[in-house]
Amino acid sequence: AQAIWLKASAQTEVQTIIAIIRIPCHRTAPLSMAACVKRALALLALAVSVRGESASSACSAGDRCEIAGSKLLQARASRQRSLLAVETEEDLEEDLEELAEEEAQESELQGASIEEYNGATITIHADSEVARTGSGVWVIIVPENCTTYDVDQMADHMPKGTTPVFRGDPSHGGLCVFAMTGTKEQVLEELDTHQWPSPPKIDSDKKWRYIDEIGLVETDEGNAGLLQQGGKPKSWGVDRVDDRKGLDNDYSPLLTGDGVSVYVADTGIRTTHWDFKGRAIPTLEVLSPWRRVCDARDTQCAVDREGHGTHCAGTIGGYWFGVAKGATLHAVKVIQDNRLGELSWFVEALDWVMTSGLRPAVVSASLAGEGRSPTVDMTVDRATQSGVTVVVAAGNDGDTSKPSACSYTPANAPAAITVGATGYYDGRASFSNYGTCVDIFAPGVSISSDTPEDDWAWNRKSGTSMACPHVAG
Question: In this protein, which residues make up the domain named Peptidase S8/S53 (predicted)?
Fold first, then answer.
């Protein structure tokens, strides 16, 4: 992925620093005052160290104006290094324990019930079928030292009245994962049946959705529309990300993404759209417990009837609108036409990409569910270890009572690259989630890209769903 370095303009520098100071204290479950102050000071030092230069003089030429480049990169790794530099090993261990306790409290406050059973961790999500009816789909994942034989044993010794849903293939590079239907008591019986190579994590399945685009454009974002001049970038977002100069009416990346496969986990893609130049391929549908591998010639498989996935794919690799104009785009449909999906479908799709997908590979997922999922955390971690980079959207709740990306999955998955949204002048878009789970910001306001109404359709959308594919590209 192209590196995106963003700098706050002079008018937003103070707000940026204040926001960074508030991040470690703005939690559902409060930190101790000492830890809060310590983290605030460390983050403030980081903010000051990357503080941008003053904005250049005003320009009245609209899209033809050049806007200076950036230095502000919000990254978990950078902050961790800053904290490590000032903390002893004992201090760090205490902070990590405190953070783990805080996250558990946050999950419970969001309605999840977390239980321990013989070393296994069981999470029942408040918005799951299990929580509503007492029975439903469960996803069991084993962290370490697991083989396909272990997964097969889970399927061969199931309690009476339960049914298998899907299984992973860890011996061939996939996840040690098994999904089944049943009650909590039947899951406990299943756990008692096996000698586990490492303590499993269990999630009740839950609804997911794609992250809705925002129906407004920030009033201070300038003219961020389609650039009409011949040879110029057709979307301001791609102009913004190709170098550190900022907006200069040029898009000249060093690499095109040729030979890289990008799996767009979304509502599907209109693969026949002219902007993809034959590089978009129907690949996979997971819209029920049974996945469907597409024939690459079947343009109705993993097809987008909603618009979200095609717009994201256009930003990733469209000929006119895209960042990586040589990448191969794979349609992976995990969201139904009613805009809903299941947590388990995303897990199953990533297992398929890990075992059957091409390399090098990127997964772009502008999806969200409330709370934290140990299964999703582990899935993203294993995918990353297998050579699949996972890029996700931070969410569009920045101006609500729950603005932290840490309140949503997969945005809070530690191994994911979580992307917030900025506007035309590099300020954080008001709708963008923020917080310690956000790794990087990218253009997300009034982004021009493809839509599936026909093979020539396009429009402008705003949201972190539009920022995420800039980073994936």
Answer: 257-473
